[in-house]
């Protein structure tokens, strides 16, 4: 048997290694056949137990896009030629189960529990990432929009999300109108481990200090006048950020999920 060979310089690896967030897009529509291909790629992502428990909403109404930009506090969201919001979706499966005589209002119905909530969220992220990678391979630029979760209640109302759904992330795409530098990545030795999670040592923290210096030399195109805060400073700031308005459980409960089981 011929030994398998590996082309480590293939287009897929190079596309992923050169991935960066694009926040400025050319005023150029994305062709319908490209949109169809991107959506097909998303559908071919892995799905837990083949439940297909995610959906994606393509935003074509400028008024809705403008509202999303308001929620995300990022004007470029409304300027993206192609814009999606991915949601975890047990609503469709609940309707299917009900049609098969399952009492979806009883305790025997478990698609609204914490396990399926997290797995459906994973499935939505995998589908989004597949679409994003395919878009980059076509020369498009993308930015993942976690900022849409600034106001989940408003997002649910805006998109008329029914019971047993919950928004996960947005994805904006288009022909790039900027070329940002690649962000630094932390050393593999502090992010990849073997067999078990290691004790955090002074050696690891010293490598983070070196990473801090690299990050601090990076200039984000959103603020070209100053370098980005060191990674450790970003962690410290976010570790005490007020998350009261971003708690998942209260909104998830209103959407019919029971995260306590």
Quantity of strands, as a count: 4
**Helix/sheet category:** alpha+beta
User: Helical element count?
Assistant: 9
Task: Catalogue the unreliable spans.
Answer: none
Largest sheet: 4 strands, antiparallel
CATH level-4 homologous superfamily of the domain at 11-181? NADH Oxidase
Q: Please, what is the average pLDDT?
A: 93
> What is the CATH top level name of the domain at 11-181?
Alpha Beta
Name the strands of the widest sheet in spatial order. Answer: 1-2-4-3
CATH architecture of the domain at 11-181: 3-Layer(aba) Sandwich
Oligomer: single chain
Strand content: 5-15%
Helical content (DSSP H or I, runs of 4+): 25-40%
CATH topology of the domain at 11-181, anyone? NADH Oxidase
Encode the helix/strand succession as letters.
HHEHEHHEHEHHH
Distance between the termini: 51 Å
What's the overall geometry? globular
How large is the radius of gyration? Answer: 21 Å
Keywords: Flavoprotein, FMN, NADP, Oxidoreductase
Pfam family, one: Nitroreductase
Domain Nitroreductase: 17-174
Organism: Bifidobacterium tissieri
């Amino acid at each position: 048997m011929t030994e398998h060979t590996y082309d480590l310089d293939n287009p897929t690896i190079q596309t992923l290694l050169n991935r960066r967030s694009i926040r400025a897009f050319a005023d150029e529509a994305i062709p319908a056949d490209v949109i169809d291909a991107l959506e097909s790629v998303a559908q071919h992502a892995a799905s837990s137990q083949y439940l297909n428990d995610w959906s994606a909403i393509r935003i074509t109404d400028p008024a809705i896009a403008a509202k999303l930009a308001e929620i995300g506090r990022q004007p470029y969201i409304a300027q993206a030629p192609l814009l999606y919001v991915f949601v975890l979706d047990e609503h469709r499966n609940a309707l299917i189960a009900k049609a098969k005589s399952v009492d979806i209002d009883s305790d025997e119905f478990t698609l609204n529990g914490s396990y399926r909530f997290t797995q459906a969220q994973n499935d939505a992220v995998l589908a989004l990432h597949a679409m994003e990678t395919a878009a980059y391979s076509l020369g498009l630029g993308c930015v993942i929009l976690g900022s849409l979760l600034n106001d989940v209640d408003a997002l649910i109302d805006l998109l008329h999300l029914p019971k047993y759904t919950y928004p996960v992330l947005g994805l904006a795409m288009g022909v790039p109108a900027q070329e940002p530098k690649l962000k630094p990545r932390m050393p593999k030795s502090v992010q990849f481990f073997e067999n078990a999670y290691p004790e955090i040592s002074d050696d690891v923290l010293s490598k983070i200090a070196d990473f801090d210096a690299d990050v601090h030399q990076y200039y984000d195109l959103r603020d070209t006048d100053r370098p980005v805060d060191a990674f450790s400073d970003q962690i410290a700031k976010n570790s005490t950020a007020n998350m009261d308005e971003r708690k998942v459980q209260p909104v998830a409960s209103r959407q019919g999920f029971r995260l306590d089981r």
